[in-house]
Amino acid sequence: MKILYAASEAAPFAKSGGLADVAGALPKALVRDGIDARVVMPLYGDLKFKDTLTYVTNFSVPVGWRSQYCGLFKAERDGVVFYFIDNEYYFKRSGLYGFYDDGERFAFFSRAILEMLFYTDFEPDIINCNDWQTALTPVYLNLYYRHLDKFSRIKTVFTIHNIAYQGKYGLDILEDTCGIGARDAHVVEYDGCANFMKGAIECADKVTTVSPTYAQEILDPWFSHGLDGLLRQKQYKLCGILNGIDVDVFNPATDPDIAKNYDAETFQEGKAVCKEALQDEFGLHKDGSPVMAMVTRLVGHKGVDLVQAIAEGLLQQGIELVILGSGEAQYENFFNELCARNPGRVGVYIGFNAKLAQQIYAGADIFLMPSRSEPCGLAQMVSCRYGTIPVIRETGGLKDSIRDSGDGYGNGFTFANYNAHELYEACWRAKEGYWQKDGWPVLVKRAMECDFSWSNSAKSYEGLYNEVVNLW
Ligand code: GLC
């Protein structure tokens, strides 16, 4: 089986979010199972490991009525072949997205993914596209390439990592920029806009999301950002597969960034050293208090408003808080101010710092993730692996990976409704649990032993790919 995994970012080459982790790890797990999975992504200006790339060829790609240069580069990493689409005008910028011409940049990318197949000897059975940046690939394939022998049997899978980002533009982008004429416009048109994600949902053979619960949730207008009507119509081809994490990368036994390495047998000693180092880093008192942490973008849908509402209450309970992230100014200001008013009790780092994030996963006792919605979420799995007990809201992948420990089997603390009182109650139970000096290590060990490796998810993808290949 041959899979071309198309994504706008993939670790370790370029990363702005969870998509990069998935695109870095899933193909690796597939290759381990004997599947020829290759990745294609843009060659960004600030791509990492650029010196490992080799030039393959160049060709031109239609963008509306124009033709644009496209270079093709290649690299191999952990047994996975990565292809890089090069066009300096589109991609040699600092940062990945957020430019005025993102629609055009990724229309180009989506088309280049198909064009490159004329110039390589790789003939995929399936192209697995991810999110709106590659959503036009199944559309172009069905509209303009199907009649060619080379493309007639290729199937497509479209994976939604977050339905909030659909690639929505005015209808005028279609003909001039995307090269989709009036006759075909209906394929990508939705609610009076050009909607790239809608086009993929229409054209792909299967649509997946990153957890079973999220696959259900997006049928509901509260979660769907307007796409629930279409998704209900296409429900027959929709399913959810929970992501894994790269357990080689996220491994407290080998992590070079933490103060002391540990595993599920030695965590009591190891985590104590890591906790002390974390408290030193943020100048926190070392009086035995539990440390509760968040590593997140500071935006509304991550539940930061709930944490804001209960922060004072948590401090009064004798909890120390550590926050790492950046985002909306209102939250950044709130946490900075909370930190200034509570020296020794609150530590705040505004920005992203991968090394410090690892130190928090290792050194904290409890990890907060009260998201309003969370397609999958990776941090709750990472925190389990590092023995830091998650407190989560029961939504999306959080619900599918974390079970309340109230029944004596779970790996965290959970609450159902998006409500600060419920979050507070869950935090309170976590804190009470922390003080039970016999019970807590049992819970930590159980959390650390949860299997969140990619091997299970990869098996589900393999099942899906087998089904898709035999569809027609
Ligand atoms: C997106 C989602 C996140 C998910 C990640 C990887 O970033 O918001 O929940 O874990 O994609 O699929």
TrEMBL record:
<feature type="domain" description="Starch synthase catalytic">
    <location>
        <begin position="2"/>
        <end position="233"/>
    </location>
</feature>
<dbReference type="InterPro" id="IPR013534">
    <property type="entry name" value="Starch_synth_cat_dom"/>
</dbReference>
<dbReference type="Pfam" id="PF08323">
    <property type="entry name" value="Glyco_transf_5"/>
</dbReference>
<dbReference type="InterPro" id="IPR011835">
    <property type="entry name" value="GS/SS"/>
</dbReference>
<protein>
    <recommendedName>
        <fullName>Glycogen synthase</fullName>
        <ecNumber>2.4.1.21</ecNumber>
    </recommendedName>
</protein>
<comment type="similarity">
    <text>Belongs to the glycosyltransferase 1 family. Bacterial/plant glycogen synthase subfamily.</text>
</comment>
<keyword id="KW-0328">Glycosyltransferase</keyword>
<dbReference type="Pfam" id="PF00534">
    <property type="entry name" value="Glycos_transf_1"/>
</dbReference>
<feature type="domain" description="Glycosyl transferase family 1">
    <location>
        <begin position="283"/>
        <end position="426"/>
    </location>
</feature>
<dbReference type="GO" id="GO:0005978">
    <property type="term" value="P:glycogen biosynthetic process"/>
</dbReference>
<keyword id="KW-0320">Glycogen biosynthesis</keyword>
<dbReference type="InterPro" id="IPR001296">
    <property type="entry name" value="Glyco_trans_1"/>
</dbReference>
<keyword id="KW-0808">Transferase</keyword>
<comment type="function">
    <text>Synthesizes alpha-1,4-glucan chains using ADP-glucose.</text>
</comment>
<feature type="binding site">
    <location>
        <position position="15"/>
    </location>
    <ligand>
        <name>ADP-alpha-D-glucose</name>
    </ligand>
</feature>
<comment type="pathway">
    <text>Glycan biosynthesis; glycogen biosynthesis.</text>
</comment>
<dbReference type="GO" id="GO:0004373">
    <property type="term" value="F:alpha-1,4-glucan glucosyltransferase (UDP-glucose donor) activity"/>
</dbReference>
<dbReference type="GO" id="GO:0009011">
    <property type="term" value="F:alpha-1,4-glucan glucosyltransferase (ADP-glucose donor) activity"/>
</dbReference>
